[in-house]
Amino acid sequence: MRTVNQQSGFTLIELIIGITILLLLTVIVMNTFRTYVIRSQIMEGLEITDNIKQLINKHHKIHGDLPLSHEDLDLSVETIMTSDNVKSIDIIDGSIILTFGNQSNPTISDAVITLIPKIMPKKNLSWSCGNRLETTVPQRYRPQYCR
Q1: pTM
Q2: Residue 130 DSSP SS3
Q3: If exposure means fewest CB atoms within 10 Å of the residue's CB, which of 64, 101, 115, 144 is most exposed?
Q4: Distance between CA atoms of 29 and 18, rounded to whole angstroms?
Q5: Are 85 and 102 in contact (CB under 8 A)?
Q6: 4 vs 1, 7, 118, CA distance in Å?
Q7: For residue 119, which phi and psi values (nearest 5 degrees)?
């Protein structure tokens, strides 16, 4: 009587398909994580500007105009807080110019977000992000209110 050898396990094509699926899932997860990191770095930079927005709003209520530079707010360049991801924060004609750099993701290194004040009734200010000439951070990474 003859015996038949049965093989168990996966064929080569099944292994290749399985590895391909794992690689595709890895690429998708890595891209999603990279986007998350870049967006969190941008949000960190925008949170730093909250105190500066309050100072500009206070200056506008007291003086009736927007500060031309950080000196009008009695801020020196050294006292304007930066972070690992924010290279500089400048104030020009009341607008806040946030430049990313230092240890930020290379995708947004040297990219800029410009926050522009809009004068509302009762001397309040409303803030919006600049247009695509003033803001160089890619649109897909900006928060919803900056698109």
Answers
A1: 0.79
A2: coil
A3: 144
A4: 17
A5: yes
A6: 10, 10, 83
A7: -80, 125
CB burial of 108-141 (b: ≥16 within 10 Å; e: otherwise) equals: beebbbbbbbeeeeeeebebebbeeeebebeeeb
Torsional sign, CA 55, 59, 65, 68: negative
Give the length of the chain: 147
Amino acid at 146: C
Q: How far is CA 135 from CA 18, 28, 90, 130, in A?
A: 43, 28, 14, 6
- Residue 110 CA to residue 98 CA, distance in Å, equals 10
Sequential pLDDT tens for the chain (147 residues): 566 667 677 889 999 999 999 999 999 999 999 999 999 999 999 998 998 899 899 999 888 889 998 888 887 766 677 788 999 888 998 899 999 988 999 999 999 999 999 988 877 889 988 876 688 898 889 888 887
Per the listing, tokens 């509302």 go with 120
